[in-house]
Amino acid sequence: MEKYDAKDHELVRLTSDAVRRFIARAFDHDDPSHPQVKKGTPQEERAVEVFIALGEVLSAREQLFFASQLLTSYRKALAPPGMNRYQYIIYSLENYFIRHSMMYDRCLKLINTVYNLGLPERDCRTSSIVQNKHVKDTPTAAALTRIGKAVERYRSDRNMIMHAKTLFDAELQPVGFFELLTESGVELGSRLADFSKRFADEYVAEKKKEFQEEIAELDILLADLFGTLLPRVEIELAQASTQQL
Which of 11, 61, 66, 191 is deepest in the core (most CB within 10 A)? Predict the structure, then answer.
């Protein structure tokens, strides 16, 4: 799959350039002895609003990448006191699953901002965004639906983690049993210890590969979503700029 970094998208460049111009102008004081931040133009204020919403999406994507990188082979010296190999891996997986699922929620809020729907954050749900008369049947709705399908794979895990119980992966169960028995004082010997470590390392390597592919897929889907939003933002910022002339 082709790699794409959503931070390079024209929508990000357009809004960030407008925000940079606003910051430079807002802090360019006529009287340095009495500094005051100048009020932004409608164009600048709108650019800031969209840029912040974009930043939330990009921040979530960056945190997702961090979570995938923090899933590494367990090293006792680097882990918090009392955390064994099984707990370390489960914690890392939960971190990734939660951040993977939250990408969709951030995209809902971005669309709410760009389309000026005016919904409170708590009401930015699929039904209220996708079925909105301004969004329904648009390329934006289709792009969001594709992102929703991509994050669906971990949604049930995310809900379980957030509201019910710790993540359980049957594939990792041998490592969990080994750690449980060892901490209970059962002597299992170096051979089983080596097996548990190799098993866990192979599991982690496979998961990291899966996560890298998932993030690459999300980058492309985010670029598609940003592309549907770009014309709307371009027109709005251009109109606000014209009104200032």
Answer: 11
